[in-house]
Amino acid sequence: MAQSPPSRHVVPFLVAWWIMYREGDDVYVQNRLLFMDNLSSPFLEENLYSYIKSRETVNEDGCEIISEWQTNISEIQKWLQSQELKNSPEDI
Question: Looking at residue 44, which CATH number applies to its domain?
Answer without folding.
Answer: 3.30.2450.20
